[in-house]
Amino acid sequence: MNLDAVAKRAGVSTATVSRVLNDLKVVRSSTRARVLKAAGELNYHPNLHARSLARGKSRTLGILVSNMENPFFFDIYRALESAAHARGYEVVVANTDYRSEQLVSSVRLMIGWRVAGLAAIVSEMDANLMQALNDSRIPIVFYDVGTPRKNITNVRVDYRKGMKKIAGYLHSLGHTRMAFVGHHSTLGPISERRKTFLETIARFTPGTEGQIVAGADGLEGGRQAARELLASNFHPTAILCVNDFMAVGVLRELRDQGIRVPNDISVTGFDNIKLAEFCSPALTTVHIPREQIGQTIFENLLPDSKRDQMSGREILIDPELVVRESTGLARKTQNSAGGKEKSLAGRSANS
Amino acid sequence: MNLDAVAKRAGVSTATVSRVLNDLKVVRSSTRARVLKAAGELNYHPNLHARSLARGKSRTLGILVSNMENPFFFDIYRALESAAHARGYEVVVANTDYRSEQLVSSVRLMIGWRVAGLAAIVSEMDANLMQALNDSRIPIVFYDVGTPRKNITNVRVDYRKGMKKIAGYLHSLGHTRMAFVGHHSTLGPISERRKTFLETIARFTPGTEGQIVAGADGLEGGRQAARELLASNFHPTAILCVNDFMAVGVLRELRDQGIRVPNDISVTGFDNIKLAEFCSPALTTVHIPREQIGQTIFENLLPDSKRDQMSGREILIDPELVVRESTGLARKTQNSAGGKEKSLAGRSANS
DNA sequence: TTGAAAGCGCTACCAG
DNA sequence: CTGGTAGCGCTTTCAA
After folding, report:
1. Does residue A18 lie within 7 Å of nucleic acid chain C, judged by its CB?
2. Is the CB of A2 under 7 A from strand C?
3. CA–CA separation, B85 and A113 (whole Å)
4. Single pTM value for the model
5. CATH number of the domain enclosing B12
6. Assuming Cys at both sites, which of A230, A307, B90, B201 could form a disulfide with B60, CB separation 3.0 to 4.6 Å?
């Protein structure tokens, strides 16, 4: 089913059919009607590949995310997509699953589709990829990772500030033994978040001790990390999580072990996803404006106007502390050995 | 950057370049190397539109889901995608947001892309759409909705059975006043789930009363529905939710109002998403094997082998009851007026 | 083992 | 206002 068929049936040329389908207002309305009728009768759907090929440019944006399952990514995706749709753009998404190999193949795919722009909301990276991306003409916006270069914008959240707010708050509550739960992508010594945690802890509260564990990004990963943490002989009074999603997993494990939050241990998240309000106890966290991020990314993806000059810029976003129920005063004494007993006591009290 | 450029640089014809890029083993390896080198130096990426156009067939599958935010849909999508990747297929997803208008435009898009198959994991429907889809040659698999026709397979869950299991279990616990929380797509009188609830309640427990409320599919929608329900003068001893995602919202509202689960009211979900284990209390629900569904859908999307004959089939999936912490014995007496007081009592006891 | 060339379906420019 | 037609970049016979 192609243009020719429609043209034939309507008794016009393919050029005219094309005009009708593209709303070029030069067509006589009677002709237009005839074409539309023919197209309808044939149940015709234009071949978008042929169209893109002929046009030479696309109105499709590519979106790469590390983990769509994490509502944080989903929210950005949704905002981005809705901004795109509002301006007549389509989007295609790809989940990289934190695997840089998957990232590479997804990028290849999108370049192959000749997307008009590429949003990389990912934590993983690949050296060669940067090169390839750099050479390609397509506008790119990175979230969080990526060195700003020519025609590559970078949107990032000021984690340092967010971390400070959380640690500061916890410190004011008397916490002196804090643990950080991250996922594998925040594990490496390069990771800003990991470093930030350590530095913040160190500078903020000289007497404070820090510990780091990691799991996969997700409910189960958070739980697993918490399990490890509790099994170690580091007994934190507070657990700072790299994001809310994992924090919910942590919460679950603590509850499982009969540890009360925030009475026994305080827990914090990051992102302020919807779920943070709906879990129990509701999470104290730091708000990251996903909606705004999505829009900002979209705007910086367009080949638009004068924004072009400020391309290669870096956009910093300031997170805000949101206090809910998962944080409280640190317990007076925090000795070792208490772990198991506390756990048992809590459990029997609960059931 | 096109084939010609690569061909020129490698001193061969475009045909040869094409052969190399497509792994046709007829090319002399020295030639092959030269081509690869040229392609690499030029940072060449084949134009996939041109490719699809020339090939006339695609290895891309389209996936339509109503609400990617709901982990239920996400899980199916993930399973489907991973099955597809394993067999060398790409996928493109579209979120319809339960809006049939969005469904229609997404379908149009995918037909335009000439996808090799289309998976519709959606609750909404559109009359004309069915027609258009029917006329198109592309293989389609519907989940849950859609009348099985030629080359259209239908995968569906036996909700009736699932509902029976839940209602039966609740009944055995002594519940006689049950409410159903659905989302707008399960609201209409056509909806199987709504009907099923009513019928099951009626048949199962003649003395039982049922009530129905609805919100948007999601955490907030569940909470909203619960709020309405509690404000009404129907005082349920159990709340059955159309899915786990909304159930978590319901849980939140109950907790907010100081109503204990399952002591005061029992709550059940549906789907058995991961979150159902991680919320508090953990949800009693019915398991739907998303992994298996995703795979099944993929298999039925392929133009493969003899499966073709059994196309137009309907595949029924049997859900299993999963009992966790959100359900318990019904309270002895269930009079009205108790709502507010109970709420206050619960609240003070909690804090 | 390689090259020449005819499309794939659509757009857009040039005439009329 | 409409038709003819040259590509868009790649695949795929058909010959060599």
Report:
1. yes
2. yes
3. 18
4. 0.92
5. 1.10.260.40
6. B90
